[in-house]
Design brief:
This protein has about 230 residues and is mostly helical. The protein has one domain: Up-down Bundle (Rhomboid-like fold). Helices cover about 55% and strands about 5% of the residues. It contains nine helices and three strands; from the N terminus they run αααααααββααβ. The protein has a three-stranded antiparallel sheet with strand order 2-1-3. Helix 5 packs across helix 6 and helix 8 runs antiparallel to helix 9. It is globular and about 50 Å long. The protein starts with 14 loop residues before the first helix and ends in a 14-residue tail after the last strand.
């Protein structure tokens, strides 16, 4: 009898999150150290050359030396964003995570017009979109418990708050406060939108059909079954 694959317990990597990761990985690997990257990531050229496309192009391009952020994109989009995408659908999910990311980078660009030092360091990557997915997950699934790798039970809201706090603290502890601006703005925009879009689940499942994940699983509360009606 064949043994089950160790990958059998992994959740499904939803289409929208998967392609966001693939596009960001490909563009970052090919362009991060290319001269063209200075035109695509958000930097001082946004104000100097009116490079108004940078808040959009920066979403899928990590600056050179910051490619480690792709690891967090892979994990957050796969294990957390996938639950939200399965519930909302790919189109609505991508709209939800990309608009806050665009708002975050645009806010930093506009801040750079008044405070040029805010654009001293090149900024880019999918982190604001990832945080939007995390915030949406926390709002939509709320107090429902999740299990990390089969242990460490915590509420969906608590997990989202923990991840958001850690992501915000990173740039501040490194002294790169401008990198925290897109994250903060994207988090606030995602929070407002998710609160309006939240809705009760249409069924007891939060993800596509398939084997249950042993890594991160939303635990549905038990409900009493309705009593059988007596027939006269």
């Amino acid at each position: 009898m064949a043994r089950p694959s160790i990958l059998a317990g992994l959740p499904r990597f939803q289409r929208g999150g998967f392609w966001l990761f693939v596009i960001a990985a490909a563009t970052s690997a090919l362009l991060a150290d290319h001269p063209l990257a200075t035109q695509l990531v958000l930097n001082a050229r946004f104000a100097a050359d009116l490079a108004l496309w940078q808040p959009l192009s920066a979403i899928v391009l990590f600056p050179e030396g910051q490619l480690g952020g792709l690891v967090s994109t892979l994990l957050l989009q796969w294990f957390i964003g996938g639950h939200l995408e399965a519930r909302w659908g790919t189109q609505r999910y991508l709209t939800f995570i990309l608009l806050p990311a665009l708002a975050g980078y645009l806010a930093l660009g506009l801040l750079g017009l008044a405070v040029p030092s805010a654009l001293t360091w090149p900024t880019g990557g999918t982190l604001p979109a990832d945080l939007a997915a995390v915030v949406g997950f926390g709002v939509v699934f709320g107090s429902q418990p999740v299990q990390l790798f089969g242990a460490l039970p915590i509420s969906s809201r608590g997990l989202a708050g923990l991840i958001t706090a850690l992501m915000l603290a990173g740039p501040l502890l490194r002294g790169a406060w401008p990198h925290a601006v897109p994250i903060l703005v994207a988090t606030l925009v995602a929070l407002a939108v998710a609160w309006r879009w939240r809705s009760p689940p249409s069924s007891g499942k939060v993800a596509a059909r398939g084997p249950r994940s042993k890594h991160l699983r939303v635990v549905q509360p038990q409900r009493d079954r309705p009593r059988d009606k007596l027939l006269n």
